């Protein structure tokens, strides 16, 4: 297969190199062999390769930049990210007949660790202590262990599943929220999205780890924020648009929430002067919760090759996304 | 036994109440029964009870405040903290013939969670992101998972042991440092204190969780800080005096260390205007890593009663401290 790997302009992650490819291919057995692979970073690199490429490994913006007829042989696109929300409204612009794969799974371990960190920071009053430190104030306040306390994780895909697993290590009582309600090994219970309102009042920690779709846009709105218990903490590793951001900032500034640890925002990058920077008890990280520069490229290529194996064997590729469903 | 429980003035933890005592005693079986227990917060409360008290449950400052001959029947003192460094130089002022117990064990779970949080924060560049947030700067930087990375935990008592356990959950390679070198279930290897210098260069994360003794005072000095790899992270949940503090702050300000998460300092409380508040890539919490207001009193009383059982059965109480050894 002719495979082209194109780095997205401005992507802060290190580019996939021939070394990465050889390592991943050698681990994948027969399905890693017999390919012609090219690597590009510039528009010229892409133009030189896309006419012949049968598979393209890249990001959504590169796919949306393809002109009609530019990729006549393309039949497989592997996106190096998990969220496909930017592609959904543009489905008509995608090359016809292409199977679209996302990179769900490459981010799980890293995202799970970020959520464990975020919940531990909220439980240990870090948002408050960070503010005290900046004011040179020593004001002791103790914190309790996580054991027995309740966290709700919205979305139990690769991100949310790994998050739930780590919260269980600390003996938390984890409620999972997803479209299907079958049990999850790391959740005390799983409820349907429609039941979110019912579990919010007992969610001391709320973790958003679901994809952004028309159904999840603005999921955590002002009304639902009001249903969280006083002094609850919020973590968002999904997309900024999952939250009615102004309402969340009001809940923090007003003291209804004890704190939030957010990795995603509207807009990104957050511009200087934005209200986010000055919101009380908010800890911000620059959309890095799920990326791991050391393992990311190898994990991504392993997932691509695993999907290629499924296609060869006539199975549905596990990472095939459904633009109508939105993930 | 006549037991007096005296709250230390200014202790921010909630006082032990008769309800706590009854609950702990009822869980302890026969050793919890048949005592006369009094509770005090003021100097007058203490004066009224100390003449008859056979056991005193309190903090070091209260013990040091006793006048010679004031506690003629006292034979057991249970300190509601683990560190006894303040008592060591004052050993001659302690009532003679008293068995001294510390509260090692009540803090383990809480301290272990704090260390997990601190290491995850350092791995995820939180010291840097907190500073960026205060300057309203968005600058992405990715981080790798903890799996396979090396942490060194100095001290494998209740605090360090629980810390090592949680770092192992994340598949870290943990080196333990303590006086004895027998294996520890959560450490890949255990080395003697004398071998600390040899393991420092491969310690990406260094966690101080040992008691403060004449041997550990200034343990992490300028020379040893220089042996840590560039971009290492330091966590201290022991005592501020374990570290040559000015050298640590130099290593942070100079960029040799990527960050530090410190819960203990010299002096405490840290006064406004102190250099600590303005040191780069330093996250400070106000000596709260090991206290848990929800479980602390019950755990403490359970440890006291367990030691009482050992005394009754003629065994050495597990929490008996040795002022000569210093812990």
Taken together, the total number of domains of chain A comes to: 2
Shape of chain A: elongated
The rounded Rg of chain A comes to 21 Å
Q: Provide the low-confidence segments of chain A as ranges.
A: none
Oligomer: homodimer
* Major β-sheet profile of chain A: 7 strands, parallel
What is the name of the CATH topology of the largest domain in chain A?
Rossmann fold
Assign the CATH class of the largest domain in chain A: Alpha Beta
**Strands in their spatial order, largest beta sheet of chain A:** 8-7-6-9-10-11-12
State the largest interface: A-B, 55 and 54 residues
Strand segment tally of chain A: 12
Overall helicity of chain A: 25-40%
Q: Give the strand content of chain A.
A: 15-25%
Mean pLDDT of chain A: 94
Name the CATH architecture of the largest domain in chain A.
Answer: 3-Layer(aba) Sandwich
Order of helices and strands of chain A: EHEHEHEEHHEHEEHEHEHEEH
Primary descriptors:
homodimer, 327 residues, alpha/beta, Rossmann fold, 2 domains, seven-stranded parallel beta sheet, 10 helices
Protein described:
- The structure is a homodimer of 327-residue chains.
- With 327 residues, chain A is of the alpha/beta class.
- Chain A has ten helices and twelve strands.
- The first copy, chain A, has helices spanning 18-27, 43-50, 60-64, 108-123, 126-134, 158-169, 196-199, 222-227, 245-253, 296-312; strands at 2-6, 36-40, 55-58, 76-79, 99-101, 150-154, 173-178, 189-192, 205-208, 232-236, 257-262, 282-284.
- In chain A, strands 8-7-6-9-10-11-12 form a seven-stranded parallel β-sheet.
- The first copy, chain A, is elongated.
- The interface between A and B is large, with 55 and 54 residues.
């Amino acid at each position: 297969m002719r495979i082209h790997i194109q780095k997205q302009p401005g992507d802060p992650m290190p580019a996939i190199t021939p070394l990465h490819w050889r390592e991943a291919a050698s681990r994948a057995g027969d399905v890693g062999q017999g390919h012609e692979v090219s690597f590009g970073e510039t528009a010229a690199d892409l133009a030189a390769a896309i006419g012949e490429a049968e598979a393209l490994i890249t990001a959504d913006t590169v796919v949306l930049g393809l002109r009609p007829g530019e990729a006549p042989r393309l039949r497989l696109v592997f996106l190096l990210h998990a969220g496909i929300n930017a592609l959904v409204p543009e489905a008509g612009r995608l090359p016809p007949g292409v199977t679209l794969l996302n990179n769900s799974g490459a981010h799980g371990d890293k995202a799970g660790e970020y959520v464990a960190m975020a919940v531990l920071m909220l439980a240990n009053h870090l948002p408050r202590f960070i503010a005290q430190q900046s004011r040179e104030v020593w004001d002791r306040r103790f914190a309790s262990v996580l054991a027995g306390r309740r966290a709700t994780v919205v979305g139990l895909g690769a991100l949310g599943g790994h998050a739930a697993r780590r919260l269980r290590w600390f003996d938390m009582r984890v409620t999972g929220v997803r479209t299907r309600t079958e049990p999850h090994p790391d959740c005390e219970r799983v409820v349907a999205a429609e039941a979110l309102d019912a579990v919010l009042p007992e969610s001391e920690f709320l973790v958003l780890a679901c994809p952004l779709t028309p159904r999840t846009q603005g999921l955590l709105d002002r009304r639902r924020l009001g249903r969280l218990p006083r002094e609850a903490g919020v973590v968002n590793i999904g997309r900024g648009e999952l939250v009615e951001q102004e309402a969340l900032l009001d809940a923090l500034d007003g003291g209804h929430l004890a704190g939030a640890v957010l990795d995603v925002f509207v807009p990104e990058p957050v511009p200087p002067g934005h209200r986010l920077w000055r919101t009380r008890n908010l800890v911000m990280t620059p959309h890095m919760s799920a990326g791991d520069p050391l393992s990311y490229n190898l994990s991504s290529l392993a997932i691509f090759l695993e999907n290629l194996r499924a296609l060869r064997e006539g199975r549905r590729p596990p990472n095939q996304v459904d633009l109508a469903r939105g993930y």
